Each structure stands twice: as structure tokens, then as C-alpha cells.
Amino acid sequence: MAIKPYRQLFRLPGVRTLLLVGLVARIPSTATGMALTLYVVTVLKPDDYALAGLVTMASTVGMAIGSPMSGRFVDKYGLRPVLVATTLAQAAFWSTAWLLPYPVLVVAAVAAGLLALPVFSVIRQCLAAMVPIEQRRTGFTLDSMLVELSYMAGPALAVAGMTTLPPGVTMGIIGAGMTGAGLALIVLNPPIRSAQELTEPEVRVPRRQWLTPGLIALLGTAAAATFVLTATELALVATMNKAGQNAWIGLAVAIWCLYSLAGGFVYGGLSRGLSPLVLIAGMGLLTVPVGLVGGGWWWLLLALLPAGVLCAPALSGTVDVLSRWVPAAARGEAMGYHGTALLIGGAASAPIAGAVIDSAGPAWAFAVAGLVGVAMVVVALPFWRRRPVSADPGPAIVEERAPVAVES
């Protein structure tokens, strides 16, 4: 591991600014789910977490549908028109959400999800355009680490705001943050095509040529990764709650996030990387026995270390491979599908892990989470060779010869 790859990455024009803007711009997006939940359970429908969950589910469904749509519009019309439309939609929703009755809020949450600011996919799409292929693994790994920091900040700030300020003020702050994020990206207007791609004639590639079983398998492994992470978080919280250690849950989750940051930092500095299949399968296998650890929550955290350090590398690995497999003309839509896969994995994980925790205990939730990750990798393995024809022939040849081996 070396610092040199990061230094080389930061020397690329515009990359440092893009990553910094991406870090700040994602914070209000990560605060939205917590803010909506707390607003419903404290104001609209006190202590009714089922109805609160319905609102967040409505928003998630909207985002899952809207993410690839936004990406396709970016591919077709450019970045700024999409950013203008989604920024206005977010400003309208968050400035009025606190005035809406519950049924209207559910419908509005779906619309706001459909027109969500595509900051996550846009940053990744622009990174793929601005960073040479041999440096993308470092770039996407660093971006994954910055996403981790955004998720550490956003929900915590939402809790602080909803518990200390009037709901309208907190939602207004989130709306202002969303608007600021959109405006920053509009002004920055990072490229969605590399200089070389801009010199080539733009050819519309039919979706059937790149959305193949191999790519769908890749998206499935991305969903499996977030399934493992969400279920692990729920199992960790349930274990500590059962032990009467609720006061330390925040610290425990933060330490777990630090594992991912450390693993990402090391992985991004390596000269060679691993296939996401290897990383996700490893994360799953190392999660399975975590629930067997006894002796207090510190031992549980220590047991999470091996799987935790693979979180950022696993997620960034799926983005890296996707950027190699998909033609530039469809990169935005493909990144949107990747975002949808991540949402589906997390959304599916919560009720399944919750049911396992309620029926069999948190230890089994760790096991189920890990086994699901491994199972998805096994399902994806036969399709890995049948991937789309890549615009980057060099790394693609390596992928065909060794689908789960080290990538260049």
C-alpha cells in the first residue's frame, strides 16, 4: 500500500474539487430518510413507526425507479438540465413537506424520490470520465470512503435538527442543503465524457447490448453487498440493545464505519485489486460467524473487523467493473441502475434481518446476512464471463480470462 496513487489521483484536473463537492453534496441526501422518519413519529403520527416506514419506503421506491431514468436523461441531454429539474423538485418538496397531511406526504415522497438529486451516480459517472482507467480503482475507492463519511454525518445531523429545532426549520435546512448541492454541481458542471470519448463519434448503443446477464449479475452482487451491510448493522444494534448497551450503539457503528474507511484507504493504494466477487464473498463469509462471539460488545466489534475492512473495497469494486463494461454513451443510465441495486439490497435486508432477529436472535441475522452475500456471488459466477463488450479492451481481456481473479 502506498500514498502515491492518491497523490497521482489528486493531480488530475478537477478531481479534487469533484470529490470535495461530492462529499458535502451527499450529506443532505443522507439526512432525508432519518428526517422523514422522525417527522412522522414525532409530529404526524406519534410513535407509529409502521406509517413512518411507509413514507421512507415510498421515497425509496421513487428513487429506485428514478435513478436510472435520471442517468438516461444525463446521457441524452447532458448534466445541467437534469440537475436543474431535480434541484427545483427537491427545493419544492423540502420547503413544503412539513405542511402536508400524511396521505399527501406519502404521494409527495414518491414524486420527490423519482426526482431525487442524482448526486451519488453523477459523481461516479464524472469520476469515470475524468480518471484514466488505470486509476479508477483508486478514485472509486476514495469516493466510497467519502460516501461513508457522508452517511456518518447526515443522519446524525438530521437527528440533532429534528430533536432540537422545529420540524419546518430542519426540513428547510435540508432543502437548502439540497439546493446548494444542486447549484454547486450545476456551476461545477463536471464532464460526463473523457476528452478521448468526446473526440469519438457518439453512437447510441442499444440497451440490450450492454444490459446483459453478466451486468445484471454484477448489479445483483452490488445489491448483495448492501444487504450484508444493512443486516449487519441491524444485528449489531439488536445485539447491543439486548445486552443493555444502547448508550454505546452510536460509538459502535462509528467504529464499524472506521473499519471500512481503513480498508478502503489501504485497498485504494494497492498496485492491484480484486474482483468484486472475491471481495463480496469474503465479506459474507467473514460475517457469518460474527454472532458466535461472546464476552461483550467490544469483542463483537473486534469480530466485525475482517468483514468491515472489505466494505468500501467491495462497493467500489462493483462501480469500477461497471465503468469498464458499459459504453460511455450509456454510463449514466448504468450508474443509475447501480444506485437502484444498492437501494434494493438495503430495502430488502431490513425486513428480512428484522424477522430473523425477532424469531431466532441477532446471532442468526449475522449468519443470514453473510450467507446471502455468498449465495449471490455463487449465482453471479456463471454469468461473469458473459459480460458486455467493454469499451476498454485491455482490462476486459483480463476479466474474461479470470473472472474472479485479480483485476488490473
Instruction: Characterize the overall form.
Output: globular
The total of helices stands at: 18
Average pLDDT metric: 89
In CATH terms, the superfamily of the largest domain is MFS general substrate transporter like domains
Number of domains: 2
Sheet with most strands: 2 strands, antiparallel
Q: Strands across the major sheet, in which order? A: 1-2
Low-pLDDT runs: 391-408
Task: Tell me what the structure shows.
The protein is an all-alpha fold and about 400 residues long. The chain has two domains: about 1-195, MFS general substrate transporter like domains (Growth Hormone, Chain: A, Up-down Bundle); about 205-408, Growth Hormone, Chain: A, CATH 1.20.1250. Helix content is about 80%, strand content about 0%. It has 18 helices and two strands. It has helices at about 5-10, 15-45, 50-75, 80-95, 100-115, 120-130, 135-165, 165-190, 195-200, 205-210, 215-240, 250-270, 275-285, 295-310, 310-325, 330-360, 360-380, 395-400, and strands spanning about 275, 405. Strands 1-2 form a two-stranded antiparallel ribbon. Helix 13 packs antiparallel against helix 17 (about 360-380). It starts with a helix and ends with a strand. Residues about 390-408 have low confidence and may be disordered.
